[in-house]
Amino acid sequence: MTDNAERITWNRRLPLRYRCDVAVIGGGIAGVCAACAAAVEGAEVILVERFAVTGGNATVGGVANWSGETAGQGAIFDEIIADQEECNSIAPYRGPYARERANRTFDHEILAVILQELLLRHGVRLLLHTRFVDIQREGGRLGPAVLAGASGLEALDAEVFVDTSGGAVVARAAGCALLPPGGLGPLPPSLMFFVRELAEPVGPQLPDGWFEPVRSEGDLPMTSTWPDGPGGKALKLKVPGYDSGDTESMTALEVRARRRMWEVLDYYQRDFRGEAAPALRNQPKNAGVRNWRFGHASPIIGLRETRRIAGDYVLTVDDLRAGRAFDDGVARGVFYLDAMRPDDEQRTYLLSKDEQVVPPYHIPYRSLIARDTANLLMAGRCFSADQMALSSARVMPTCAMMGQAAGIAAAWSADRGCRPRDLDGRELRRRLEARGANLNLP
Fold first, then answer.
1. Which of 72, 96, 184, 390 is buried most deeply by CB count within 10 Å?
2. Where is 223: in which H helix or E strand?
3. How far apart, in whole angstroms, are the C-alpha atoms of residue 160 and residue 71?
4. C-alpha–C-alpha distance, residues 27 and 34, integer Å
5. 61-97 pLDDT, tens digit each
6. What value, to the nearest 5°, has the Cα angle with vertex 317 and ends 319 and 243?
């Protein structure tokens, strides 16, 4: 909203329909792990999710890939991996993380069912198709929150809230301090779309006169491919230049992404140059036209960055480069500094390849505590970090570790009647290690 926009005041009496110990807002991987971890500790937990399924970018966003380390991420993530393996829906584990083998692909539609059953197994109460709208604040304490679901506007109160929304929706509504954006804008998002590779030529599917067809390799945006079962592929398309924390900009981003998707697909369905089309990353060159028929696009574009909440500690890229250990280290990051330029469509990085590599590092519990509240924790890509640190820590296995830590802390805080910052981070770390988290640094 612009500063000079006309303002209104609205006031309604709402039913306070839900009460719980821990309310988790946002059902991505961080939120799922936070909710389950809190429930394991004995808390009554409600998870609020705006879509029909949980999993966020991993499921609704179609990313279908764990980047970084998938072993030793904690008991909840271990359950997810074990269920995927039992369903034969994930690529084999290839050993400890190394950059050249950073990706472990999986079936994202099966994962949506796995996560649903995991949450129900742990006794988490789900509110699907439900959006967080607003939250009351009295001093440093937050709550109740206003939700909008199929029943209309209702209220939820909790002893502790956990913001795993990605966009910091709880913190923003509460007027919490946010960290400044990067100088060039947010880390660029990517749209996942899916094609079938047929034996017979498909022919172009983009009608003449639609959009702006790509006619040269130099005009192609960054595009990568991922496996998506027999005869299928997923294509990931970079779409920079938008603010995903602004309503109109987010709308324009989704429109642009689907137009660009169709333009790129059209390029690979034709042979404009009479020679081999350019190779895509993760796929060797194929001569001539690619026989790809469009299947579907993910309902949402995959966001890497929206808003970050100011915490009791702001994790910095210098912490990562130093492989810094913290007494209250509750998550372990290993992924490289994956920061592409936000102002062009190409695969151009802000750092050289050598500069991208970081040693294993800790994320401290203090970076999961909202600085200016008494009962708000956060996990996932809205946690307290600078932009370059986020570019590594945002990957989903690391977000799962943060979520598990925030969930346990929220449950303890509710049970003990204390603020999350009053907990001993070293005690929390010991609990996480006892529940399968590898927090060792070299």
1. 390
2. strand 223-227
3. 29
4. 9
5. 999 999 999 999 999 999 999 999 999 999 999 999 9
6. 145
Which pairs with CB-CB distance under 8 Å and at least 24 residues apart come from 142-151?
Answer: 142/170, 142/174, 142/373, 142/374, 142/375, 142/376, 143/23, 143/375, 144/16, 145/23, 145/25, 145/170, 146/14, 147/18, 147/48, 151/17
Q: What are the angstrom distances between the C-alpha of 305 and each of 166, 302, 351?
A: 8, 9, 18
Among candidates 144, 167, 140, 111, which has minimal Cα distance to 301? 167
Q: Are 373 and 403 in contact (CB under 8 A)?
A: no
CATH number of the structural domain 16-183+305-434 = 3.50.50.60
- Parse the chain into domains and list their residue ranges: 16-183+305-434, 190-297
Gap between the Cα atoms of 33 and 402, Å rounded: 8
Which residues have C-beta within 8 Å of that of residue 248, sequence separation ≥ 6? none
Among all chains, which residue has been given the structure tokens 């040693």? 359
Query: Which residues are CB-neighbours of 130 under 8 A, at least 6 positions away?
Result: 48, 49, 50, 147, 148, 149, 150
Q: Which residue has the tokens 């372990």?
A: 332
pLDDT per position as a tens digit, 347-366: 899 999 999 999 999 999 99
Q: Which of 379, 362, 373 is nearest to 421 (CA)?
A: 373
- Report the C-alpha gap between 52 and 57 in whole angstroms: 13
The pTM score is: 0.94
Contact 30, 380 (CB under 8 A): yes
CB-CB neighbours of 272 under 10 Å: 13
E strand or H helix that includes residue 120: helix 108-121
Q: CA 214 from chain center: how many Å?
A: 30
Q: Omega into 284 within 30° of 0, i.e. cis?
A: no
Three-state SS at 197: strand
Pairing assessment for the beta strands 190-197 and 232-238 based on DSSP bridges: antiparallel
